[in-house]
Amino acid sequence: MSLHTLAPKPGFDRYTIQVGWNPHRSYFATVIDFAWDPATDPDTEPDTVRLGHHTAVLDPTEVLAAVEPYADIPPDLAAQLRADQAAHPPSPRHATPPAPPGRR
User: Fold this and answer.
1) Diameter over CA atoms, the chain
2) Nearest to 80, CA basis, from 60, 103, 56
3) DSSP 23
4) pTM of the model
5) Which of 17, 22, 32, 45 is most buried as measured by Cβ atoms within 10 A of its Cβ?
6) pLDDT truncated to tens, each residue of the chain (104 aa)?
7) Where is the stretch described as Disordered (predicted)?
8) Which residues, in sequence order, are CB contacts of 47 under 8 Å at separation 6+?
């Protein structure tokens, strides 16, 4: 697994922005504002991005596009994510989806 924490753009300093590769077959992206308190600021709910956690994302540019409004993207990050995937290929248990019931 890899995890890259990105520097937020101005105006998004409260956000934690992360992308990476999970060897369970997906790139992922997360944008979360951990400082938001719904009790003190109920009318200004922050943006939240969670990509690749429940469905597979197989192109690193997809997760980078999702976080681009919030973070500065290093120019070599897509290549680094591909290298992360190559270094940590999908685990054999997750490499091929199982056949639907009744099909072989």
Assistant:
1) 56
2) 60
3) T
4) 0.80
5) 17
6) 899 999 999 999 989 999 999 978 899 999 999 888 888 888 888 889 999 988 999 999 999 999 999 999 999 999 999 999 999 887 666 554 555 566 54
7) 77-104
8) 15, 31, 33, 70
